[in-house]
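Quick illustration for those who missed Monday's session on complexes.
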Amino acid sequence: MALAADHAGYPLKEAIREHLLNRGVRTVDLGTNSTESVDYPDFARRIVVAVLEGEAERGILICGTGVGMAMAANRQRGIRAALCHDHFTASAARRHNNANVLVLGGRILGRDLAMEIVDTWLDTPFEGGRHESRLEKMDEYQVRVERRKGKG
Ligand code: RB5
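Prediction with D-ribose bound:
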């Protein structure tokens, strides 16, 4: 599991890293490592690269609201980043959307809720079936748009 955060997400990242360690989950910490101001796209990119290149199976991203990290991560095909503020969304994000990146708002979530969301997201499998073809459609659409723009 790869973890990254900006300065606003740093304290929650540390708590999640410890939580995962206690659960026996192997983690790769991709920063940031203080509350000094940094730019969230730089850290979203680290997770995107780690997941797409297979260094980590999945990733967790944290900024103040989670919004910027989710926007930045989801620009990359193959990344399905889910911004979750509750247990139900975290569960559905795995069951229906096969989310490979969990995004959290460090300035929004209390610790207990954040750990509940992380555990749910970790422990819930993808249901496949009808959801598989829906995910494929997202990629197909993106490929068509890229071709039209002359990228592919
Ligand atoms: C940083 O102040 C804040 O803008 C950032 O953490 C995040 O919430 C952006 O979406």
